[in-house]
Design brief:
Blueprint (H helix, E strand, L loop, with lengths): L9 H8 L2 E6 L10 H9 L3 E7 L10 E4 L2 E4 L11 H9 L7 E4 L4 H15 L3 E7 L15 H13 L5 E7 L11 H13 L3 E6 L5 H16 L6 H10 L25 E6 H7 L12 H14 L12
Parallel strand pairs: 1-2, 1-6, 2-5, 6-7
Antiparallel strand pairs: 3-4, 4-5, 7-9, 8-9
Helix pairs in contact: 2-7, 3-7, 4-5, 5-9, 5-10
Length: 320
Amino acid sequence: MSPGIFLLPPIFHKLEQAQTILLVGAGGGFDLFCGLPLYFALRAQGKHVVLANLSFSSLDLSNARLLGEALYEVRAQTQADLRYFPELHLARWLAQTDAVPVYAFARTGVQPLLRAYQQLTELYGVDTVILIDGGTDSLMRGDEAGLGTPEEDAVSLAAVQMLTGVSQKLLVCLGFGVDTFHGVAHAQYLEAVAALTRMGAYLGTWSLTPDMPEVQQYRQALSFVHDRMPDCPSIVSSSILDAVEGQFGNHHSTLSTGDSELFINPLMGLYWAFDAMSVAERNLYLERLRGTTSLGEVTHLIAAFREEWPDIKSWESIPL
């Protein structure tokens, strides 16, 4: 059967053109882990993939190599006495088969982060940046009922929007539904997808399934890190993998969610892909953040926008 008859989302054509890819966890924490299935698949195709994450870790308390004011190189041999350091444990898991660095961006404003992106993309000759969002709140443009946790996603999106020398800038979301806990109305996420579709910026959706080797590696990596950070599991990745394995409803695989009612469901295992520049263009407050140098400034400016904007939407439920 000829491969040409398959209906492939446009994202795959764009990835086929890519040679050197910077795969970045846009929202911090464990977001990079949501990109691991892509990482393994792209590596298997012979692509050079550089891993990076906006970090919640106290990077200055480690001996990670400081490459710039907001850019650290984390390797398996990096030493740190930190309770929370997923980038380090991921680097150590990867080193079992391939010793590659995991770059960590400090939590900061747009300008220092932009300089870190510019340095890293020039170092490797990156032609494609893929921002990974664990969840879907990166599509919130600012006037929705709730924005989730917008600061880190917005800083990443603004920095990549201004980044030069890169031919493709993509955003991929995984974990539809997990942001309900943070006040995101997923009907408004779907409205954003519809708007991006009209802009020609929606690049397709596809499913993770439990038999995929890349999904199995994703699970192995997450388990390795959870074993070394038992008090700080990833609720998002745990929920995604539970959904991919066929769990449903109020299923809990970590103690961290014990006081919450979950809705684990098959939609959590879908990747959603977009042109990142169109997502940035649609955002109503992103331009205000361009000159920021700290995350505190970002938080203040987003809050000010919300107070000033005359038409904040009310909550909407999906009428199904």
